[in-house]
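Retro notes, structure queue

What went well: the backlog is down to a handful. What didn't: a couple of records were mislabeled last round, so from now on we paste the full input next to the output in the thread. Example, using DNA alkylation response protein from Baekduia soli:
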Amino acid sequence: MLDEQLRSGDSHPQVREVLNQSVPLEPINTYEAWIGLQEGTQREGGGWGAGPLRDLGALAGSAEAREHSFRAERNAPVLAPYDRFGHRVDAVESDPSWHWLLRQGVEHGIHSLPWTDPGPGAHVVRAGMYMLWHNVNTGVMCPISMNYSAVPALRAAAPDLAAEWEPRLVSRDFGAYSQIGVVMTERQGGSDVRTNTTTAVPAGDGTYELWGHKWFCSHPTCEHFLVLARTPGGLSCFLVERGPGMEFQRLKDKLGTRALASSEVEYRGARARMVGEEGRGIPVIIAMINFTRLECLLGGTASIRRGVLEAVHHCRRREAFGTPLADLPLMRNVLADLQLESEAATVAALRVARAYDDDEPAFRRFATAVMKFGVCKRAVDHAGEALECLGGNGYVEDSGLPQHFRDSGLPSIWDGSGNVVALDVLRAMETDPEALPAFLAECELGAGADRRLDAHLARVRETTGALLGGDDTGRAQRLAEAQFTARRTVEDLALALQGSLLVRHAPAPVADAFCATRLGGEGGRSYGTLPAGADASAILARAVPA
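Corresponding output:
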């Protein structure tokens, strides 16, 4: 009898009792939980958007949204090149949860708000919406971003095509909504699109036929695409509608954003219309990339925020040595440092978003590139540290942290990896006489508030001045040296803007800890190295409502 009881477990009910585990994060209103986003949208002219942001935050923090994201990631899209009769169809089948995620983004206008409802703060409010939905699923933001960024590029380069397609690009009716993608990268080229070999041959009726192979297409379910191809006049941009002559070869097996279909595509006489002037394809795409780089900055910021949310929530509800993890001194240091990174990213992202509402072209383009580099480079380490806060629980897929970690590197790679962006910043410093001064003028608004920021600003002025100074003698050597140290230069610029914004707008404990650790050399190389005097309690009070 005793043996039977032991085998059944009836005499040891504690065997099946769950102890010392956290509870689900959802439901949570992710807008109401994000103090920095609330303050930032109000400060940068988007206060009128509090209602829509709150509504989206409730949906983004629902158990339903989380489950749809998990399901879409588990059930990756599948390419069906042919139908059962052998006809070429190039169908991409995605899980219904993918379509649910995309529908919510479209119906909330994340892809179109500044174009359908232009006005003060429209880009700021839209930035907040983008970050809230990015925290649900990273991959679904790709088609949303493509539509958002294609509209201004088409308006500038091809008003006739914009008039034809824009109503569908910006529609909030999911049935009428049309997706646009971008196809640039080739096997031999990567970021150097000047080596592209895809050709465009005049068809005699004002259209062209495209021939070539593209290594990366974002993303193959779109109805039409912007494509770079060569003509006798040089590299040009074309609008291609999905159909005959555009054949998808395979879907990419990616590290992250697995719910998002990405592919290789071969053009075999696909019909296309030129966008803009012949030979001016790169400027057309650059006009679009300026906006998609803003998306990368917003995505990196959202990733950092998500890590804080998950880590703080877990550590407040799990104990070690009889005490909640979040109350242990060393863990408090780690969590406060993670939150500090989120504060700095959020304040900078929303300031840059305001530059898209205001008439600040010099600051806008320069700051977008600088902060894309600065924030996105921090996102991967941040995601790894947030995962570690959950320990083994964070290493299993059910927690969502592995997916978060895999996705965290995308904003840094998308539309210009670190090296490409750093070199773009150097080029802007040299070719646009207004870019660096406009950026530094914004940073200087914080001068006098903190001695460490003042010292950092002085170093930045000295460094950038040395890069730009001098005559043609030794120019090649100076350029090589500038490129060798470009990442450090751009990182220092990013920290200067973040520090300036925090001393002006953040609570004193946040600004002081940032200046001490990021500018003053009092922090270490990993998260959780705040100095002894840092007010972790005040910083963490802004992380997640208790």
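Agreed that this is the format going forward. Reviewer comment attached to the example: The mean pLDDT is 93.
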